[in-house]
Design brief:
The protein has 367 residues and is an all-alpha fold. Helix content is 77%, strand content 0%. The chain has 21 helices and no strands. It has helices at 2-20, 24-43, 47-76, 79-83, 88-97, 101-114, 123-132, 137-149, 153-164, 175-189, 193-203, 208-211, 213-225, 230-237, 246-258, 262-287, 296-303, 307-315, 318-331, 335-348, 352-364. α2 (24-43) packs antiparallel against α3, α3 (47-76) packs antiparallel against α8 (137-149) and α5 (88-97) packs antiparallel against α6. The longest helix has 30 residues, at 47-76. The chain is elongated and about 80 Å long.
Length: 367
């Protein structure tokens, strides 16, 4: 009788444990909620809780993916499923017949996230991607942000690099650029400027404008032709739309100028200016269908009606870069270009601070 009692207790206890085990979908929800809580705590500067929630998000994500992987492995081991081959949709058809709802849900979740083309309609490739999903780079990045703000640069760097190694599973792919910028900033704070340079250049590895030698040579040629119409040609002829690179252009221009590499400084200042100019032109054209670029003065006049764009230019150091480009052109021996650009800025620069600097620069450079 006693044995029967303990057997019953053990059965009830094991049934409770089994029933309490969270599903993969529940773990996914827990992971997302923990990450959202981490973001809220981070925004409220409660870094201790933000760190805890981030670690919880990582743990729940790992548990979720391991459970999904095991579920799919069990389903795919059946002979009928194996006989369907590697096609995702052929496998789904068999799973539908077998009413394996959880495996179907898992596969469809990843198809919705990435699309079948991303996996080449291969169930093997989908499972390989699931191995990557064990990581939670957004949470790793947030932990890196916390350590950076606390001055723990080595820990911050480690977590940023961990996030960077798993950018394939970022929900927002461009977030990798923010990590690269943070790594470059850590190098600057540690006074490791050569490493900062390398990390800023890494941001440009997919930058079409930076890699376009013809564009860069043409811009330099226009500046160095030093003719009366050089400024207008520069802004009429050239465009660049790798907007995530603007900060890197600016920082590299400053870095090379301080290092005495003025040719490189001029190249990156040109890219910074033309990229910001292109972004603003595109925005103005989307707002005013009648607008068409005619000259730089007209561009600035149109810009003055869009205060939010002016503020965007401030935030992204664009007006500073206009003045810096003029200084670099002067120091490279091209006074007609420098004078022509500063003359427009003196009258039409939309931000008063940088307009005053243009006046001072025009006087300082003797133009």
């Amino acid at each position: 009788m006693k044995r029967l009692f303990f057997t019953a207790i053990a059965f009830i206890f094991s049934s409770f444990i089994f029933a309490a085990a969270p599903t993969a979908a529940e773990l996914a929800s827990e992971s997302l909620n923990a990450y959202r809580n981490a973001l809220n705590c981070f925004d409220n500067m409660d870094y201790g809780k933000a760190l805890k929630y981030s670690e919880d998000a990582i743990l729940f994500r790992r548990q979720q993916i391991e459970k999904e992987k095991q579920t799919l492995k069990d389903s795919l081991s059946a002979k009928r499923v194996r006989d369907a081959g590697d096609s995702i949709y052929a496998v789904l058809d068999v799973l539908e017949d077998r009413k394996e709802k959880e495996s179907i849900r898992i596969i469809n979740t990843y198809l919705k996230k990435k699309g079948s083309d991303y996996f080449d309609n291969s169930i093997t490739k989908l499972r390989e991607y699931m191995n990557l999903m064990v990581h939670y780079p957004e949470a790793h990045k947030l932990i890196g942000d916390i350590y950076r703000l606390e001055g723990e640069y080595k820990f911050a760097e480690d977590y940023y690099l961990l996030a960077l190694n798993n950018t394939d599973v970022f929900d927002v792919p461009d977030e990798k650029y923010e990590i690269l910028y943070m790594l470059a900033e850590i190098s600057r704070l540690q006074n490791d400027l050569p490493k900062m340079e390398v990390r800023l250049l890494n941001i440009l590895t997919e930058d079409a404008a930076y890699k376009d030698k013809a564009l860069n040579m043409a811009m330099m040629h226009t500046i160095r032709s030093d003719k009366n119409d050089s400024v207008e040609k520069f802004f009429s002829l050239y465009r660049a739309d790798c907007y995530y690179s603007m900060e890197a252009y600016t920082k590299l221009a400053d870095y090379y100028y301080e290092a005495g590499a003025k040719d490189k400084a001029l190249q990156f200042a040109s890219l910074a200016v033309i990229c910001g100019f292109s972004k603003i032109s595109e925005t103005i054209e989307s707002r005013n269908s009648n607008y068409e670029y005619t000259n730089l003065a007209n561009f600035f006049q149109e810009l003055s009606f869009n205060r939010d764009i002016v503020e965007w230019g401030n935030k992204n150091m664009l007006w500073k870069n206009f003045n810096f480009l003029a200084r670099l052109a002067h120091e490279d021996g091209h006074d007609i270009f420098a004078r022509g650009l500063l003359s427009v800025l003196v009258r039409w620069c939309p931000e008063r601070y940088w307009q005053k600097e243009a006046v001072l620069l025009l006087s300082e450079l003797g133009l």
